[in-house]
Every structure is written in C-alpha cells, then in structure tokens.
C-alpha cells in the first residue's frame, strides 16, 4: 500500500468570493445586520455599519485604481495595506475585495529594506496607509499612488465611481484575494497568490467540521501578513460571528492577550506552540479564585510550528474540557491542510488527516510514492493550493502545472489507535526552512544578509532546537581578524530581517570541517552553545540582540525599556546558549543587566509565596503590613516627596485605610518561603470607600490634602458616569506595595491577581485602581486593566498652587485603571 491520503469530497462553488459571501449572508439573515461584527476596547461596529462603510470605501478604492492609469493593468489589481490593526484595516480589506482587487500586507514593523523588496517585486497599483505610516510609505514608494486614510476624519467620497469592474474571464473563485510574502528558498522573500477558491475550501471545511455555536466570538490578533489572520478575520465574519480585534503587539504579551480574550468573551484562539507555552502558566486560577480563566475560550488551534507532546499534555491537563486542534500547512496551501484533535498520551502529536477536497502524497526523491510506514516528502494536491508565487522564475516546489505542491516537509503514515484509520506524523524538513515563533524562515536569507557585509569571508546559519523552542544562530568567518564587528553584523540583520529572525551571532576564526571537507554543523552548534563570540560580554550581547534600540545602562529595567514576555523568553534562551543559565523566574525578579550578572550564578530565590487575607488592622500582621506600606511609599512615592510629607503622616493615613476596610476581606498580605512579609494590598468596596471618606474616617494630614485632591480629580469623573457606584459593584485598590528587589514584580502580580479573583468570586463588576509607578502601571496593563483616564500631576492646581510641579517626568503620570470582571 502506498502512502496516499484523500480528504472527504465536498462541492465548491466556482464563483465563490469572500466579499460576495458577506453580502449573501446579510441578505439571507437581515437580523444579523444590527448585531456586532467588530469588537474593540473602544466599542463595537455592527454588520450593517461594516457593510455600509466598506461599500463607500470600495468606491474610493475603485476610483483611485482607475486614476493610476496603468500601462498594463492586472486583471486583479494589487493594493498595498500599511495600517494598524483595527476596524479601519478590516473595512479597507473588504473595500479592496469589493473593488475587484487583492490586498498586499505591508507590515510597518518590518525593516524598510524588506518592505522595499516587496514593493519593487509586487508593484501594487495603490497603497493605503494610516496617517502614522505616511512618511514610511512615501519614502519607500515616492512615485506610487498612495491613499493616506485617517479613520477619524469624515468620509468624503462624493463623485467617486460607484461601478464595479467587469468580471474577468476566469471563474471568480480563481481570482486572487491576497498576496502574502514568505521566506523564499533563494534567500529573498517570495509573494504567494491566494485565490478565493482556496479560502472557500478552508472555511467550509472548518464550518462543517467545527461549526460555530450561538454566542461565539473569534479573535483577530495575528499580523496581517501571516496566513492565520485570514481565518481569524474572514472565517468568523462570513459566518456572522463577531471578531474581537486585538491591538497591535498584543500577540506578544500573553497575559494581556488572555485578559483581552476574557473581556470580549472570545471562544476560539489560534496560537503557535511558542505562544501556547507562555500562556500555559496563566491558565491556572489565581490564588483565592476557584473559577477557570477565560471560561468562554474552549477551542485552541495550534499551527505554525511542531506541537511538542509535553506541551499538549500539559495543556490538556489544565484544560481537560477544551479542544486542542493541531493543524499543519503553509501559505502556499492556504495555511492548513491537515487537522488532528489532540488526545492525552500522544507522543508524538500527529498532524492528522487531510481536510476536504485535498490529497496528501508521501513521495521519495524521484517522485515515486513510498510504502506505508516509510518516511517520504509530503506533497499536496487539491482545492487548498494557491496560484503560485508572484513574479518570474517560478518555483521548483510546484509540479504538474501547479497541480501538486512539494511542501519540503517529511512525513510518515501511522494507524490511529482509536479508529484504526491512517494519519500523518510530521518528521522534519529536507531543506533549510525553519519555523521561528510560528513564522517560516529560510536560513539562506540570513546567510545572504551576513555575506553582504564588508569583511565577511563566509557565513553559516543554523537552528538549534531545545525544550524552549528553536534558536537561530549565525556564524561568521571574517576575511581577516578585525575585518568585521558584531555591531556591524547586528545592524545589517536589524535593517533587513523581520523581528522574529534576529539571530545569535558569533565570530569564528575558521569554519569547522569534517574529514571529507564538508561543514561540521554539529561542532558549530556546540560552539554556539558555549559562547556568543570570543571576548564578548554575553549579557550585553543577548540584551542588545533582543532590544537593539534600548539603552545599555546596567540598571535599566527590561520591561520599561520595551521588553515583552516573548522577548524575555528570547533573552533567557540566548543567555543559556552563551553558558549563562538564568531561569525566567530569576529574570522576572531581576530584569536588568546588573541584576542578571549578579544572579546568573545563584540559585533562584525561594519559590514559595503565600497570599493570605488580612483579618485585623491592629494585630501583629496588620501592624507589620501598615509599616511595610509606609516604608515603601516613604521611600519611592514621588507625590509624597513633592509634598514633603513625613513617614508618620503616611503611616497614620494608611492605618486609617486598613482600620476602615479590613473587615471586608479584600485586603491581603504576601509571605515568602522564609516566613517574611513581602507585600500588602489594601482594597475595599468602592461605594464604602466613598462613605468612609465622607464620614471622615481617613486621617489625612494637611500636607497630604493635595494628594487626596488629585486622586479625587482623576477618579470622580469616572465614578459619576452615569451615577455613583453602589455597594457590591466595584472593588477599589487603595494601596499596594511589595518589597525585595528580586521579588517585587512577582509579589505585586500575586497580590493584584488575588484581589481580582476575590472580586470575581463575589460577583463584583470589576476592580478600580490608581497608579503612579511604572511597574504597577505595566502590571495592570498585562493583567488586562484598561486605562480609563490619565493626568499629568505637574499641571494639577490645588488651592491656587501646583503642589506637584517638581515631580520628575517619569513619575508625573497618574493613571486610572479599570478591570471589568463581568
């Protein structure tokens, strides 16, 4: 028996298109028009608003395409899209399709050199850009037609051509709707034409195999240039399912992503295994909360990388009732061509069986099929195939006039132990393409960038796999000692490679060879694991590779300098490769260069941390808690320092807070593994806090009155919209402090999470807090709080004066954060 698998046959329409499907759905279900289509933290847009807006914008797109006066117009004009992720982007995508065009994502976070290559090869007929990206687009395409669209400005399309272009000779389903760029085998990115037919097949399979239920919500969080974004957006909307649009960059911040998903009731999420690994710790209930985090999120789709069995097992143990769907594919085959619902105990995790209207073949190097059980090269046929690569030259991956695609992946057929049917295991690659954080990358592209640097004789790119995932390594042999520097190599990589493909670089005197004269790749990998480069500071090298634009001062905080959870994993991995093992827990406790140097050779601090409720204000624990609060605020609070208030005045105020609020059971302390008090949070029912203040229970010294006034100035407008909150509605965090340089972030997070859990358990609508410190401001953002108001305290006037005028700029912003639990 030969290794061939056929997906179930299901009919497709030859004239199916994305834009017409939206129209037909709204015509068949008029009531759907008034229901939400797009969800954001700022509000919602109905299907009616989306439909009306895209029709208006399509007229503008069509008119500008005709005005371009192309000498040889394409049957399907290409429109570049350089916009922030948001409703305006979605509206423009549908507008481009309704104008008969296809969209070309232009990610503004990519290096200008990469974008310039894409624009030169794809030659879009029009570029649509947001105002914030106008200068970039004008620089890259100074002569190209550009529509700078400000979604905040009134839409004026009077006189625009309302006609739709005449249909071309091929069936509508064979027209392209997008061109997505991937890393090519030549070392240059290659554009892939994606037809409506491939989207139809992918969508209809998913709609049939995993139908949406009433009330479901999907999440659009993948950058537009990656194929998963197509299902996230169109796969849901075309079925009448609302889509929550995550702000740019949220996909790199696991805690904030989950908080966003919880706020909007997201029921399905696509994640690469690298991201799932980071989300996993957040899927356990916080202390004091017996509920399940993001309870409506029940379907998790993994794609983009191999799914390790250990990760799947850990996920299923934490979310036993959820579906973990493992998909396999690439851009050339519409993202996904096989599927498997993961089960406990599978090792390795299969990639499953072909989806509808597709055929998978395992062939040898001569193109002949291999026998069942043998490893072969995976080839794909069927309705999921793209139209090929953009530009001349074609690709050796396509055969039989584009009817068969060679994925370059290796696979093997095995029996399913449950039903006895055949399914596929993924067994690596036969070429040099790799997956980095879910993004395909060709190692030749890194080598090309390095070889173009002056003074480079030879360059080799490799990837090493470990428990934390793949690491990209670049080895460079200079023409002579000192001919090239690591700084020059890093600058070249930053200028030309996408953010996910920034390598760990090493200078070596000679490339190691095997006795037969071939490159000794294993020895290179060993070299990469022991040192970044001769004589280079490994801490500085790792920091600079991950945050190339951040300051290099020893005490700079990683997260305040722009670091994220994903970048933290990258930094820790690079340090481990350089022989400086640091755990994530150590790093979070000490996120600076100086602390990393001190802590890399030490054991992690005691891991035990106990959070317990405060039961009394005047017992030993309550007294110690007030002392800790007074000490920390006396030491670090810039507002207190500007007022010249004393520690005794702070102590009296904080003691009165705790005395009035402790009986509500919403205040907690944190105790470390040595039994020492390391943190405290004082919180209470917001309505009762207002009552206590009116009754004069809080001891506010005259010098602290401006502080009380500025807090009221930022909270009162929110509290009285539309009316003052009543008892049982909101929890207000009055104070939070943590001590211990290496533990402060962790302790603060645990305390804040405990209050959130208590608020949810008691049915509160949410939690409200005011923050001045950058750490707690960032912590609130990561935990899903929204910034409802901000205030520059230097401009605040009290009793005819500006009491906080001398506060340093980095401590002058007061933020009102609100987390909604329901």
Explain this structure to me?
By secondary structure, the chain is an alpha/beta fold. The chain folds into three domains: 18-425, ANL, N-terminal domain (Rossmann fold, 3-Layer(aba) Sandwich); 447-599, GMP Synthetase, Chain A, domain 3 (2-Layer Sandwich), CATH 3.30.300; 609-820, Aminopeptidase (3-Layer(aba) Sandwich), CATH 3.40.630. It contains 24 helices and 33 strands. The strands form eight sheets. It has a seven-stranded mixed beta sheet with strand order 27-28-29-30-31-33-32, sandwiched between helices. β25, α12 and β26 (504-507) form a beta-alpha-beta unit. The longest helix is centred in the N-terminal third of the chain and has 21 residues, at 47-67.
**pLDDT average, as an integer?**
85
Q: Report the CATH superfamily of the largest domain.
A: ANL, N-terminal domain
Question: What does the largest sheet look like?
Answer: 7 strands, mixed
Please report the distance between the alpha carbons of the first and last residues.
56 Å
Count of distinct structural domains: 3
Class by alpha and beta content:
alpha/beta
If strands are numbered along the chain, what order do they take across the biggest sheet?
A: 27-28-29-30-31-33-32
- Number of H/I helices: 24
Dominant shape: globular
Q: Determine and state the CATH class of the largest domain.
A: Alpha Beta
Low-confidence stretches: 530-534, 600-606
Question: How large is the share of residues in beta strands?
Answer: 15-25%
Q: What integer value in Å does the Rg equal?
A: 29 Å
**Portion in helices:** 25-40%
Q: What CATH architecture of the largest domain do you see? A: 3-Layer(aba) Sandwich
Instruction: Tell how many strands the DSSP assignment holds.
Output: 33
- What CATH calls the topology of the largest domain is Rossmann fold
């Amino acid at each position: 028996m030969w290794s061939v698998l056929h997906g179930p046959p299901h009919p497709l329409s030859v004239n199916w298109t994305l834009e017409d499907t939206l129209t037909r759905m709204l015509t068949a279900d008029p009531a759907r028009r008034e229901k939400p289509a797009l969800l954001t933290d700022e509000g919602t847009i109905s299907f009616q608003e989306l439909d009306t807006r895209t029709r208006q914008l399509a007229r503008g797109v069509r008119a500008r395409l005709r005005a371009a006066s192309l000498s040889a117009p394409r049957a399907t004009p290409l429109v570049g899209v350089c916009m922030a992720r948001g409703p305006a982007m979605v509206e423009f995508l549908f507008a481009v399709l309704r104008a008969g065009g296809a969209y070309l994502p232009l990610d503004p976070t990519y290096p200008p050199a990469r974008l310039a290559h894409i624009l030169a090869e794809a030659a879009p007929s029009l570029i649509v850009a947001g105002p914030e990206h106008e200068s970039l687009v004008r620089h890259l395409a100074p002569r190209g037609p550009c529509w700078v669209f400000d979604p905040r400005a009134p839409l004026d399309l009077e006189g625009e051509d309302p006609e739709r272009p005449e249909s071309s000779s091929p069936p509508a389903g064979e027209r392209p709707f997008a061109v997505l760029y991937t890393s090519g085998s030549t070392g240059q990115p290659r554009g892939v034409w994606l037809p409506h037919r491939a989207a139809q097949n992918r969508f209809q399979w998913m709609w049939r195999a995993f139908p949406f239920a009433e009330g479901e919500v999907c999440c659009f969080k993948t950058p537009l240039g990656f194929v998963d974004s197509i299902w996230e957006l169109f796969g849901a909307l075309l079925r009448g399912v609302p889509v929550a649009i995550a702000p740019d960059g949220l996909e790199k911040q696991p805690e904030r992503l989950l908080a966003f998903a919880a706020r909007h009731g997201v029921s399905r999420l696509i994640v690469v295994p690298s991201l799932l690994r980071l989300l996993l710790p957040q899927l356990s209930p916080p202390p004091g909360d017996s509920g399940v985090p993001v309870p409506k999120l029940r379907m998790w789709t993994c794609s983009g990388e191999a799914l390790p069995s250990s990760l799947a097992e850990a996920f299923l143990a934490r979310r036993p009732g959820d579906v973990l769907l493992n998909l396999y594919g690439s851009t050339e085959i519409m993202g996904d061509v096989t599927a498997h619902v993961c089960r406990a105990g599978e090792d390795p995790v299969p990639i499953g069986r072909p989806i509808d209207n597709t055929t998978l073949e395992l062939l040898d190097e001569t193109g002949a099929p291999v026998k069942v059980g043998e490893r072969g090269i995976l080839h794909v046929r069927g309705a999921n195939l793209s139209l090929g690569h953009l530009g001349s030259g074609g690709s050796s991956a396509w055969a039989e006039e584009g009817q068969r695609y060679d994925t370059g992946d290796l696979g093997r057929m095995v029996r399913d132990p449950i039903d006895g049917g055949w399914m596929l295991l993924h067994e690596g690659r036969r070429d040099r393409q790799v997956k980095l954080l879910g993004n395909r990358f060709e190692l030749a592209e890194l080598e090309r960038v390095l070889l173009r640097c002056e003074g480079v004789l030879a360059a080799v790119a490799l990837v090493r796999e470990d428990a934390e995932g793949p690491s990209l390594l670049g080895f460079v042999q200079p023409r002579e000692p000192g001919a090239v520097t690591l700084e020059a190599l890093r600058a070249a990589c930053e200028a030309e490679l996408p953010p996910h493909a920034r390598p760990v670089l090493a200078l070596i005197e000679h490339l190691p060879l095997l006795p037969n004269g071939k490159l000794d790749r294993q020895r290179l990998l060993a070299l990469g694991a022991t040192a970044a480069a001769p004589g280079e500071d490994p801490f500085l090298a790792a920091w600079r590779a991950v945050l190339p634009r951040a300051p290099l001062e020893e005490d700079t905080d990683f997260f305040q300098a722009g670091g994220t959870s994903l970048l933290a994993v990258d930094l820790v991995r690079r340090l481990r490769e350089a022989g400086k093992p640091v755990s994530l827990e150590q790093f979070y406790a000490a996120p600076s260069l100086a602390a990393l140097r001190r802590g890399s050779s030490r054991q992690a601090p005691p891991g035990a941390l106990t959070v317990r409720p405060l039961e009394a204000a005047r017992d030993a624990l309550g007294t110690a808690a007030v002392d800790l609060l007074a000490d920390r605020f006396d030491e670090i609070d810039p507002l207190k320092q500007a007022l010249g208030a004393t520690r005794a005045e702070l102590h009296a105020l904080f003691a009165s807070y705790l005395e009035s609020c402790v009986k509500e059971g919403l205040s907690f302390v944190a105790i470390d593994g040595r039994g020492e008090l390391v943190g405290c949070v004082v919180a209470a029912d917001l309505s009762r806090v207002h009552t206590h203040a009116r009754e004069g229970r809080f001891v506010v010294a005259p010098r602290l009155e401006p502080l009380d006034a500025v807090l009221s100035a930022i909270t009162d407008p929110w509290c009285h919209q539309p009316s003052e909150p009543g008892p049982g509605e909101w929890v207000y965090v009055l104070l939070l402090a943590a001590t211990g340089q290496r533990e402060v972030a962790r302790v603060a997070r645990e305390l804040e999470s405990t209050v959130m859990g208590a608020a949810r358990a008691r049915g509160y609508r949410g939690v409200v807090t005011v923050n001045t410190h950058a750490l707690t401001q960032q912590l609130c953002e990561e935990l899903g709080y929204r910034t409802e108001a901000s205030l520059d305290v230097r401009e605040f006037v009290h009793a005819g004066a500006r009491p906080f005028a001398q506060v340093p700029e980095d401590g002058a912003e007061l933020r009102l954060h609100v987390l909604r639990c329901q």
